[in-house]
Design a protein that fits this description.
The chain is of the alpha/beta class and 463 residues long. It has 21 helices and 10 strands. A 5-stranded parallel beta sheet has the order 8-7-6-9-10, with helices on both faces. The chain is globular.
Length: 463
Amino acid sequence: MFVLQSRWKLENDRAVYYGLRNKDHLFENEVRLSKKQRAILLSLPRELEKGEKDVLGRRLLGLVAVEEKDYRPVPKSLSEARFCVSCAANDFMIPGLEFDEDGRCPICQCQEETKALRSLVPIMNDFPHAKDSRFDVAVFYTGGKDSTYLLYYLSKVKGLRVLALTWEIPFMSRSAFLSIEGAKRSFPKVEFLARRISDEDLRRVYRKLYELSENTCACPSLAYVLFYPELVSLRVPYFVAGNEPAQILGLYFNHMAPKMAYRFASNRGMNILINIGRVLSFHPPFRPGQFQSLMTMKQLAYGDNPLKNLAGYRNDLVSNVVEAIHEVPALVAPLKRAIRSSSWSGHIPSFVQVDFDAISGGHYDWREVMGLLEKEAGYVVPSSAGKGLHTSCKIERCKEYSQFIRFYEMRSRMIPFSALEMAIASSGRNLSREDAIREIEEELGFSLEEVEECAIMKEYIGK
């Protein structure tokens, strides 16, 4: 008896795999089907005749169509899951996760090949003092551990003039609110600026986003929309991101960013070509990070570049946020004006990344960082003290649940971000495997039953 292997789904003229495959076939998640092949696969489960096996061929037989004894059931809980021997990855939180003969997941198999994939924007750990602005750098500050660490590094360690920008979301956790107040006391030289979208407009955005993604997570995209015009008018030279390494690398394993995207910022030839185009069109040439900043804002204002989608690299998370933002055109209009004016004037804040591993002595250890920030930055550890991921939001578990259940049920091809981040962090030793597994079991939203935090989100949007 032959059956359709788990995590393979027939979609139009293709068989699509919902999972993360081993290194040698990492992104080979689609197989184009002939009409005969599709008809045979649709007829499963049943015995196959030799002629039908020949039609399927070696590419489909044993991969998509398998004998019943080779069928891999999908775990229904963490207790049933198979874990990677080297990190916290498992085939419950990432259903369809493959393992090599040594029991390692694809993330660990690819560790050597991906160690250089540090950032999608230029990396800068040192910054000059600005000559024509009150600020040397700006950061988006949420009150979470990562943005607090970035604020601590730029202000206290490097002594820079920092503009800390906070988008006040309705779901901000109490620990994040208290951490922001603690940071104001700890960093008297930092200027804090907060913005809040009206509840009426925000609900319109959130309702559309919930319709598309089944959650309302719009960070940091909406913050970019709110604050880019401010950065341009103040002539802030650098807009600094401080994402933990696991978040950056997660885009690669989610097939949202190819390797070349991580190398683009340092590709001298490509940047020269872009600047030749700028000069020929009477625009000032880009400084490092300005191209990335402008493209990020243009994506939010005008949507994804069609060529990106044709190449197979689509970030549904951002695309859905973009569509939701456009429910309120008044939010987007100032952004479009700022894009046009900054492109012509050259006053584009450079989008750059601080390498958390490098500034932490080699490894960004979540537990050590939280202890440092308590002492130096007025940081308040969340009530779920063991939680290391995304500590500033009350509905983070709801986002994790919705991403997980959509992927588990093969309604979205996006692997849950937190699942990849926990695996990558424990593989790269930013977090111990034991601590990561405990956090997955006790703190995160990987569940087949809706988590209670979803009620907070639904109440706000009136669902």
